[in-house]
Design brief:
Residues 60-717 form the PFL domain. By secondary structure, the protein is an alpha/beta fold.
């Protein structure tokens, strides 16, 4: 099936362009409705200026495309097409090996899915049958879709437009999957005790329960240099050498057969776009657009099956490779990574040969960035509370060290920043990999984007090297090939298979269970370890030891749940396509979920770190040092949610030391807790022999987890958000941003191999001063010199946030950084909005 955007009438008269500009902007928003997304993107009276190159270079028209995306990202479309194709394929292959079934399903989707080229696009490849849409992946789970289908248009955040036709089609398709999904298998394997902890809010593993793995950085270089034809040839050769006299030969044969099936599907996918572009070129009214379409056709005839030879071919090949990951699987965090490194040889050669100019290359990057915003995924209502704002995780990373050990920033890195400055939508996120050799000029250029796009986020490359070494990665690899995956997690590009988002772990719930001797005060049930009656504890050391035992017990149950899900993925969700993009799989004849990858690691995200650290400091201060309370009274007051004790609550909040204020005792408490979590989780291995690692980021899980935890000793009220990532508690910062960064730098970041995340909210008026951005660049460098790993900024004042919450119509395109991603303020639930408002706003350096 082919859906073609109607070609528009063209004129070279600049006068007409200017005359129609305002009317076009008005009509464009009206025309891109759900009803006609497939048929007509531009209104009939649209008049375009010569080429797409010229069009995207004009601020008025560029803003119009941005407005269209922003409007439709507020309520994207849920589609049923993929669900229909994969259901039909699975029904046809019911008795075949699972890896063959996955391969044939992807082949069918690529050969039959709706394709289109939007009028402003320079690159081919779409995720769904209409732009800005999310497919359904029924193989992951269907029960929540049945239960929630009528709520997706009205739920508090992450709303989707769902037509009655799509609802009807899904209700016809989904019953076949009941009892056959990843979630069905996973829930059957998870031990009952672990299920109890999940339901109580101790941990959450929604991502891996219903989704593909995601969280990897494909070896894009392999495709750019070899092409999928070469991979198919290699798989065919290896298949022909198998004797099929051993059981493992059959496993290898099934893997290589799956590779060949997938490569055939990719060949069809690219060829379909080549034909579509040729057809559009024949009806184009403008010679320049005709040439652009013919270039798309010629490019798709070559890549991604053959090696790329030009910058345009390389970018198109990379995009095909990337978008197919999301067509195949709904895993979060398929990372673009250090693609400036991947593309630089092609960029330099195309410039030298005159194939492209610098400005044209930037326009292609802008088109690439727009396409990233067509990739969305559906989270169930529970997961949407932890991942609010449509996070997908496709970050581009600029900087780092090259093979020669020198800073790798170059002109293409600057072009990416220039493209982001013009586009600045949700996706892709931008990460700056700061090194000692990075120029101040490049860092300032990156910082200049922060006030408007809330990007980029900044990483200390040298701490990342130490993380790799902690994970057992060889020194040479750690030195020149570090990258982050998804949000802030670490993995070797093209070599690691990381379950980086295996589970969120609620530290504050563990503290609550400790205070109540393993009883959940929300239900009265004994779900935790009986660690002792805290009213009999005589020292802080006793309490700390009891808390550590509780965490250790709950982590063991969490690991049991993760291992069960990994077994479910291994059995039901092999990922042969992703395996083509991870080194080791082709050589070993095994897919990534059967041990084919070179490196494995599994990450657990600890949530509420500062809430717990501040609570321990409050107990130390008011119970064991001042003796103003005993533990029995404290627990009673917490049960009452401080009712009748507001004066005491405020006293505790303001007088007990808190992390984030450069207070050595509070910071040491946080650092000790941080290190304990890292050490405790590292005791375990995943099913492939990879290490378990710790991370400290929460997306919006600290809001959802907070709803499962009563009042805490730091003065936090019941069911309110926990602290965010490894940031200070909301409202706890009293000494300004330099104190926050000094506190953060005292944490042993290198031990958190799965990454750490620091959110800082700056007052926009401060950065409007002449020296503001220069000071911010200097601050980032100083933080990294002290040993910090990551920092990202929101630049907005509390008054604006509150006004946007109360008067959304005044802020239609109000973007905000939530965690390791940027989204529209209006996509967030009020609870998440309130939490962002509550984060400390910092002004003074």
């Amino acid at each position: 099936m082919v859906s073609v955007g109607r070609t528009w009438r063209m004129s070279r008269t600049i006068f007409l362009v200017d005359m129609f500009a305002r009317e076009w902007l008005k009509n464009l928003k009206q025309s891109f409705t759900l009803q006609n997304r497939q048929n007509e993107v531009f209104p009939k009276n649209f008049v375009k200026r010569k080429t797409i190159m010229a069009y995207l270079d004009q601020p008025t028209y560029l803003q119009s495309v941005r407005d269209m995306y922003l409007q439709n990202l507020l309520k994207p479309t849920l589609t049923s097409e993929r669900a229909k194709f994969i259901t039909a394929s699975y029904q046809e292959t019911e008795h075949e090996p699972q890896i063959i079934r996955r391969a044939k399903a992807l082949q069918k989707i690529l050969q039959e899915m709706t394709i289109y080229l939007q009028p402003w696009e320079l690159l081919a490849g779409n995720l769904g049958p209409v732009p800005v849409s999310a497919p359904i992946y029924p193989e992951g789970g269907v029960d929540f879709i049945f239960e929630e289908l009528d709520t997706y248009g009205t739920r508090p955040g992450d709303k989707f437009e769902v037509t009655e036709q799509v609802k009807q089609e899904l209700r016809e398709i989904l019953p076949w999957w009941q009892g056959k999904t990843l979630k069905d298998r996973g829930m059957a394997l998870i031990p009952p005790a672990a299920i109890i902890q999940r339901e109580a809010g101790v941990f959450g593993a929604e991502n891996m329960l219903t989704c593909g793995t995601g969280h990897f950085l494909p070896n894009y270089q392999k495709i750019l240099r070899w092409g999928f034809d070469a991979i198919a040839d290699y798989a065919r050769q290896r298949l022909n050498t198998l004797s099929l006299t051993r059981s493992e030969d059959f496993e290898h044969a099934h893997f290589y057969q799956a590779c060949l099936i997938i490569c055939d599907g990719i060949r069809s996918f690219a060829a379909r776009y080549a034909r579509l572009a040729e057809d559009l070129a024949q009806t184009a009214d403008d010679e320049d657009r005709q040439q652009e379409l013919l270039l798309i056709a010629n490019t798709c005839q070559r890549v991604p099956m053959q090696p790329a030879t030009t910058f345009v071919e390389a970018l198109q090949s990379l995009w095909f490779t990337h978008v197919i990951c999301y067509i195949d699987s709904n895993g979060y965090g398929v990372t673009l990574g250090r693609i400036a490194r991947d593309l630089s040889p092609f960029y330099a050669a195309s410039l030298e040969q005159g194939d492209i100019t610098r400005d044209q290359a930037r326009t292609y990057l802008m088109s690439f960035m727009f396409k990233c915003n067509d990739i969305l995924k559906l989270y169930n209502n529970t997961a949407a509370k932890n991942y609010g704002g449509f996070p997908v995780g496709q970050p581009i990373q600029l900087g780092g060290l090259g093979p020669d050990g020198k800073d790798e920033t170059n002109d293409l890195c600057e072009l990416f920043l220039e493209a982001e400055e013009r586009v600045h939508l949700y996706q892709p996120d931008i990460g700056i990999l700061w090194t000692e050799g990075m120029s101040d000029e490049f860092l300032r250029k990156a910082v200049r984007l922060v006030p408007t796009s809330h990007k980029p986020k900044f990483f200390n490359y040298h701490i990342g090297e130490h993380m790799y070494l902690q994970a057992g990665i060889p020194m040479e690899e750690a030195r020149t090939n570090w990258a982050f995956i998804g949000c802030v997690e670490c993995g070797v590009p093209g070599k690691s298979w990381t379950w980086a988002d295996a589970a969120m772990f609620n530290l504050a719930k563990c503290l609550e269970l400790t205070l109540y001797n393993g009883i959940d005060p929300q239900t009265g049930e004994q779900i935790g370890l009986a660690t002792g009656d805290v009213s009999r504890f005589q020292s802080m050391a006793q309490l700390a030891e009891a808390f550590k035992r509780q965490v250790g017990y709950m982590l063991k149950l969490t690991v049991q749940g993760i291992i069960a899900l990994q077994l479910a993925h291994r059995d039901l969700w092999p990922e042969p396509y992703e395996s083509l993009l991870v080194d080791g799989c082709l050589e070993r004849g095994r897919d990534v979920n059967h041990g084919g990858a070179q490196y494995y690691q599994t990450g657990v995200q600890f949530v509420g770190l500062a809430t717990v650290a501040d609570s321990l400091m409050a107990i130390q201060e008011f119970v064991f040092e001042r003796n103003e309370l005993d533990m029995k009274d404290l627990v009673r007051i917490l049960q009452q949610n401080f009712q009748g004790h507001e004066v005491l609550r405020r006293k505790i909040w303001h007088q007990s030391p808190k992390f984030g204020n450069d207070h050595d005792d509070a910071d040491q408490c946080m650092a000790d807790l941080f290190a304990f979590c890292c050490d405790e989780i590292s005791r375990y291995q995943d099913i492939w022999g990879g290490i378990f690692t710790a991370s400290f980021y929460s997306l919006t899980a600290h809001v959802g987890f907070g709803k499962r935890v009563g009042a805490t000793p730091d003065g936090r009220l019941a069911y309110t958000p926990l602290s965010d990532a490894n940031s200070p508690s909301q409202g706890a910062v009293q000494q300004g941003v330099t104190a926050v960064l000094r506190s953060e730098a005292k944490l042993p970041h290198h031990k958190a191999i799965n990454g750490t995340l620091l959110n800082v909210k700056l007052n926009k008026h401060f950065l409007m001063r002449a020296e503001g951005l220069d000071n911010l660049a200097s601050l980032i460098k100083a933080y990294f010199h002290l040993g910090g790993f990551h920092v990202q900024f929101n630049v907005v004042d509390v008054e604006t946030l509150r006004d946007a919450q109360q008067h959304p119509e005044k802020y239609p395109d109000f973007l905000i950084r939530v965690a390791a991603y940027v989204t529209n303020w209006h996509q967030l639930s009020k609870e998440v909005q309130d939490e962002i408002i509550a984060r400390s706003e910092l002004e003074a350096f």
